[in-house]
Amino acid sequence: MTIDWIAFTPWSAIIGGVLIGVAASLLALFNGRIAGISGIISQLLHFKSAPKEHLPWRILFLLGLISSGWIYQLFFQLPVITPSNSIATLMIAGLLVGVGTRLGSGCTSGHGVCGLGRLSTRSLIATISFMTAGFVACYLFLHSGLI
Prior knowledge:
Layout: H1 10-31, H2 37-45, H3 55-75, H4 87-103, H5 108-117, H6 121-143
Helix pairs in contact: 2-3, 5-6
């Protein structure tokens, strides 16, 4: 593996990571809630059974997530992304990710960022599991000729 040093931009990744950590910490500190995106969306989709006082912050949290890309592009140029797979393949992949978050009782943000920050054993096992599955999938698809 080689690194394209010209395209290597560690500062944006570091700043993004710090912002995610700060946002997750503030949500936990002021609301006592975990910044797990799948849980936030799930509660919005089941709004009839969710506590009504949680609705505003969940909507604002998701609006912040969605609008952050638009705000970023006001100051910096967004990278050009060209999908190498069909829309059907991407939709199936998204569906599998959604099923995985339900089976794993949370997503990467809930387990990887918040759960590990709380020293949760369950989150450690979940994070190791999905990172291992990701490494294996990348290796198989990139080195076995499946793509």
